[in-house]
Design a protein that fits this description.
The protein is of the alpha/beta class. 49% of the residues lie in helices and 11% in strands.
């Protein structure tokens, strides 16, 4: 038996961001975005139709940290009139931060109590979110969770609640045109990881797998071309659509072992998330083979009938983009690698993996 559900309304296409004012309507709105000129320009165009925001929260950078999020929540609480909707304009870090703000309702301690103590959150109090991604990769615009980092303690948390699905995702590929090469690569590989990790997953189902196949096949074709032609609007649109499909895939399954492996590498080595969660994909794929006929069949739709060759193809794809698939490239000795995989296999995402965890040598 299986089930699939995603309540997010999706507006996709070049120029879709122009609908934002109408979607906000007459509601009081808060803007969560980056402190950068390009995003201030977009915000100005929104204001022309929806009026000025009640508050602008722009202190978030990559990988939202608890200290920054606490400030964001205080800024939300200080709005002269309580916002009725939050517009999250930016990459996955911005959308994740908006989800935390939506749940905290001005009091970040509420969220931390849920993350660290298991306290229940009342979803009926959450502020609705309109997600407007400016990158093509994280899929946060169609998921119900947010990643929260605590750099000081070395912990990574996942805030998850059904009320955190955005009410609308506006996916405008034109917003990704300015993304530099490194960001385009990292987010593109994050999307590929979302797709593949939803396949070798205990919660995989026919609908999530169809989304994953469409996403992975497209990313394998598009991303190398896009890396050589960053200004190509057609390639940007194809990558944005593939990343959205990957988001729809893992919105129901969550990720698996490769993501759990990535967390320590990002926390302790500073490796950008999209690289940290994708370099191990060929290895993790090999560990999944033969464990599920459905998984193998789905992977064949992406990588061909011979999955041993398919894993080699995946390795060549990553190496061709300049991403090493060797743990030693990330400062891991063989003993470190075995310990990391053992630890990751016991994590929340690692337990989603269908494969064997005793092959870490």
């Amino acid at each position: 038996m299986w089930a699939y559900s995603n309540p997010v309304r999706i507006e996709f296409g070049a120029g879709a961001a122009g609908k934002l004012g109408k979607i906000i309507g007459r509601r009081r709105w808060a803007l969560v975005t980056y402190d950068m000129p390009v995003f201030r320009g977009i915000a100005a165009s929104i204001q022309a139709e929806a009026g000025p925001p009640s508050v602008v929260i722009d202190n978030i950078v990559t990988n939202p940290d608890v200290r920054d999020l606490a400030l964001s929540c205080r800024q939300f609480a200080a709005a002269p009139s309580k916002p009725e909707v939050i517009v999250a304009l930016g990459g996955g870090s911005i959308i994740d931060a908006a989800k935390v703000v939506a749940a905290a309702q001005g009091d970040f301690a509420r969220v931390m109590n849920a993350l660290t103590g298991g306290a229940a959150l009342d979803g009926s109090t959450f502020t609705p979110i309109i997600a407007v991604p400016s990158t093509a990769g994280t899929g946060s615009e169609v998921t119900s969770w947010a990643t929260v980092w605590d750099q000081e303690s070395g912990n990574k948390y996942s805030l998850a609640h059904g009320a955190l699905y955005p009410e609308v995702a506006i996916v405008d590929p034109q917003l990704t045109l300015g993304a530099p090469q490194g960001l385009t690569l990292a987010t593109g590989l994050d999307a590929l990881s979302h797709a593949l990790e939803s396949i070798w997953n205990v919660s995989a189902n026919p609908i999530s797998s169809n989304h994953a196949v469409a996403a992975a096949r497209e990313i394998l074709d598009v991303l190398p071309k896009l890396m050589k032609d960053l200004g190509n609007a057609e390639l940007r649109e194809r990558q944005a659509r593939a990343a959205l499909m990957a988001g729809l895939a893992f919105s129901n399954t969550k990720t698996a072992l490769a993501h759990n492996i990535s967390y320590d590498i990002t926390l302790h080595a500073g490796t950008v998330h999209g690289i940290a969660c994708s370099f191990s994909l060929p290895t993790v794929m090999r560990w999944s083979l033969g464990r599920s006929a459905a998984c193998d069949a789905t992977l064949r739709r992406i990588l061909g009938d011979d999955l041993t060759v398919g894993a080699e193809r995946l390795t060549a794809f990553l190496e061709g983009l300049g991403v090493s698939t060797r743990p030693s490239s990330y400062g891991l000795s063989p003993a470190d690698w075995r310990a990391l995989v053992t630890k990751a296999s016991q994590g929340e995402r690692g337990r989603n993996f269908i494969g064997r965890h005793d092959l870490a040598d």
